[in-house]
Amino acid sequence: xxxxxxxxxxxxxxxxxxxxxxxxxxxxxxxxxxxxxxxxxxxxxxxxxxxxxxxxxxxxxxxxxxxxxxxxxxxxxxxxxxxxxxxxxxxxxxxxxxxxxxxxxxxxxxxxxxxxxxxxxxxxxxxxxxxxxxxxxx
Length: 138
What we know:
Blueprint: H1 2-16, H2 18-30, H3 41-60, H4 64-93, H5 100-130
């Protein structure tokens, strides 16, 4: 249930860009620049650490292959969402956010996020198939 709520929030955030609306005033107040130009990355990184610690036991209880795939998927997603956002922050605070390079960084960011989701879904479906879980849609 916890993971479902987390994924629902991530989807809503991606749609409505809540993290950017919430932290834009903080950026102006702190005069944030460089990798922290998009100030949401600081609490975002903290949340990632807390979630990883919270779900570590869950991960360790998974079969090795599924665990590796879940961690790989999460690393891809976080590299896109946080890592590339920090690269974008450096570019945006230097005035290069609206350039071709800025667009390429944005494309890499979104691609890593989507690939992370794709790898996670693949691993989840493999796990369900190996567990002989039957899912019916009516």
